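User: Show me a protein chain along with its predicted structure.
Assistant: Here is one chain, sequence first, then structure tokens.
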Amino acid sequence: MIDESLFSHLQNFGLTQYEAKAYTALLSIGTSNAYKVSKASEIPRTRIYDILDSLTNRGIVMLEETSDGTKNYTPLPASVFLEQAREKWFTTYNRVEKELKTIESENKQAIYVSTVKGESNILAFCRSLLHEAKQRIIISIWAPMYAELLTDLQVCMERGCSVRGITFEVEHPLSTLDNHRLNKSHHSPDNKKWFILSVDGKKLLYGHSSEHNGNAFYTADPVHIYLLEDYIFHDVLVNRVIEKEHNQEVATQILSEILAEMKINF
């Protein structure tokens, strides 16, 4: 029994639903005539010849016609089909990547901040930035999102990138990252976890942690980058001083006084 979702996935490779059904039916039953393919795939007999002709013209199915006029169809082996699909995808991706980046580079309009919405888009954007990183990554991040990006951060380090910054509620962060002490303000009901990701001092993504499925903000503006990198550096500095002095109580008292002056409750 073929999972129906397979047909949807094959449509991402450029097949129609009927073409996907015909091809998988042929893989299942082997070389067959149109009648058997129609029966196995549940494609109407009025459509099966058009579908098989289309697959034949694209080289996904091979046609043999016997001396008595019988037409038999043989599917391209799955490994060959998949390799062709992979090659086509990479060729298309490389061409589109080059053309889109050329178009983008020709745009002289200054773009300071743009919004990235939703968990999957935020994580994909982070991974894209990490993939592009050449020298250094500076990060401030909470445990759920850290877990999502850990492998990508490790790959960056293996590539020779410096990874520095601070984590929250992470039990065993990478050795180059500091783990932040927690205080009451971090657990405030109104407090939403955040992240900051700066790459090579040139690109910055920051906002609500991805699991909130909210918004993040991308910028290449040097002022934004300087301010948020500086914020992380100061966070690391204060965290290390407090840990060295073993003076969490004093830190909490000072923070309470500052927030009280600002009329912020926590």
